[in-house]
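The pair is quoted verbatim below.
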Amino acid sequence: MKFILLILFVFTSYFIDTQKVVIEKDYDFFELNNMQNIYTVKSNIITQYSFQGKQKFQYSNFKHGDIYSLDVSDPMRILAFYKDFNQVLFLDNTLSEISDYLSLDEINMNETNAICTSSTGGFWLFNKDLFKLQKYSRSLNLVQEGTNMEGIIDRNLTPDFLDEQANNIYLGIKNKGVYIFDIFGTYKNFIPLNYNNSIQVVNSNIYYLKDSIYKYNVKDFETSVLDIPTNEINMFKMVNNTLFIGDKHKIIKID
C-alpha cells in the first residue's frame, strides 16, 4: 500500500532586527534550553553560559572520549553521550554528575548515533541492530520498544537526530527527512526535509538548516524561512522566539 504525503509549502520570511555576539570561544557544537542557558561542547568539555555569555559551570572527564551529543531539554537531567566509548552520563543543572557512567555495552547496544532523554525518565535511542526505537531506564532496563523500521528506513542510512517533544518522538536522517513516532515509539509518518547538520524541534515546529534556516509546522504543513545570512554558520538553536547561530568560533544572539 502506498501512502502519499501531501505537504503544502507556504513561504514567509522572518526579518531580523538586532544581533549580538554573546560567546567568542572555539567549540564543536552548542545547545540551549528554556532556562536561558547555553552549553558549548569542545571535545570532552561542557561549559554552561547564561544567554548574556557569562560562564557559569563547566564539566570535563578525559577518560571517556569526546562528547558526541548533549540533550539539555531537561536542565536538571542533562544527558551526555560518549559514542566512542558507548556510554551515557546524566548531569544536573550545575553540571555535576547525578549518575555513574552507563555503558550501553551492558544492553548489547553495539551502535547508535541517535539518543535523547525522555520526559518520563530514562532515555530513548535508536537500536541499529533491531532497527527500532527503544526506551531504557537509568538502570538500563528496557521500558518500551517501538515499531520495527525494517523496510521503512533503508538500512544503509544512519539516523543522526532524536528528540522527544510534546508526546511525539522525532527521528532524523541527514539529507533525507524526519520520521515521527508517538510517545510509545509507534511509527506515525515521515516528512521529507533535506537538512544538513543542524535541526531542532520546538513544540510543533521543525527548524532545519539548508541554504537558509527553515521552519516546518507539522500541524498545518506550512514552511517558512528565516531571513538571515547563513553562508558563515553551520548550526543554530531557537528558544522563545530568540535565535542563536554559530560557526564553531562564536555564538550570535538574534532578536
Summary: Confidence is low (pLDDT under 50) at residues 1-16.
